[in-house]
Amino acid sequence: MQPQIFTYPTTFYLESGKSLPGIHLAYTIQGQLNATKSNVVWIFHALTGNSNPAEWWPGLVGDNKLFDPEKYCIICVNMPNSCYGSIGPLDIDSTTGQPFYHHFPLFTTRDMVKAYRHLKDALGIEKIHIGIGGSMGGQQLLEWAIEEPNLFEYIFPIATNAEHSPWGIAFNASQRMCIENDATWQQSQREAGINGMKVARSLALISYRHYEAYHKSQHGFTIETEGATIDKQKFKAETYQQYQGEKLARRFNAFSYHLLTQAMDKHNVGRGRDAVRAALQSIKAKALVISISSDMLFPTSEQELLAAYIPNAKLAVIDSYYGHDGFLLEYETLETLIKDFIA
User: What residue range is the signal peptide (predicted)?
Assistant: First the structure.
């Protein structure tokens, strides 16, 4: 599905104090608004996702799925800083006529929500029936539910937090160090830092998965090298890490990756407000906070805090060995939890 482009031609001010003369957002709409405009589902993608949730969440979005376009008007926007159509570091800087590259200003999760609000208004949407997102998508969802407490009827923040943890920041900082230590990183060209990003992705994957997931799927040697001498044998876990780095490099760029990890680190719903807990207490949507039992990056304690301070929120913990990536993979359990909560 090709995304549509929304253009906001007026000066856009960022939390950092910097500004852009205008912005654009890539978004998809699957399904139609009903007569009362009461069937909107707004899905927020995670770090390297795009605006087509049917592509990266196929177990939940699509014909005859939980979020069926025949029933809902499903909206998803590509995050600014990214590389799937929304404004980002590979776009042209109107002041220089050249791509921004290293000079693109950082969009925080709060800046992203500010941009989405302009799109929402342009679409004539006054109420969102369901807001849902995992990981960095959940961070944006929480920001918006605080900014506009009466906008969402239901929210489903999954495997996410109110403030990014020192543990998560350490992982992201280490990934950026991989990029920054690529000899090409300072070059003003699209492929700058790409080999460093491959290493960064390999590091990130360790935080996304769990010991048991690797033990079940990556144990032993690759089929191609099983019969070779011991010095020629390669472990599945090793080649899997290499594969994941190469896979991301075919569809992403180091500039966006560098910026998006910074945006995640800056996430803090209490910034500029009374406190994290007070900010969460301002949410009025009916909230089911969902946790993944084996998530080492966004552990259950972070979702317990959300459920404790969002008024009347419920907490559900999915028992999964997938780790953080369980929010992308545990389709059937997620569907059951969401259906039961709404019912």
Answer: none
b/e map 44-55, b = 16+ CB within 10 Å = bbbbbbbbbbbe
Out of 3.30.360.10, 1.10.1740.110, 1.10.3730.10, 3.40.50.1220, the CATH code matching 169-261 is 1.10.1740.110
Active site includes 295? yes
Q: Reply yes or no on whether 51 is catalytic.
A: no
* Annotated active-site residue in 164, 210, 295, 320: 295
For all residues of the chain together, what is the average pLDDT?
96
Farthest CA pair distance, the chain:
68
pLDDT in tens, 323-333: 999 999 999 99
Kindly name the residue from 51, 82, 86, 135 that is annotated as catalytic: 135
List the domain boundaries for the chain.
Answer: 4-164+267-342, 169-261
Averaged pLDDT for residues 242-260: 97
Classify residue 10 by burial, with Cβ atoms within 10 Å: 0-12, 13-18, 19+: exposed
Residue 258 known to be catalytic = no
Return d(Cα 301, Cα 304) in angstroms, integer. Answer: 5
- Residues 116-157: pLDDT tens digits? 999 999 999 999 999 999 999 999 999 999 999 999 999 999
Confidence band for 223, pLDDT divided at 50, 70 and 90: confident
Give binding residues as ranges.
201, 325
The answer to whether the pTM exceeds 0.90 is yes
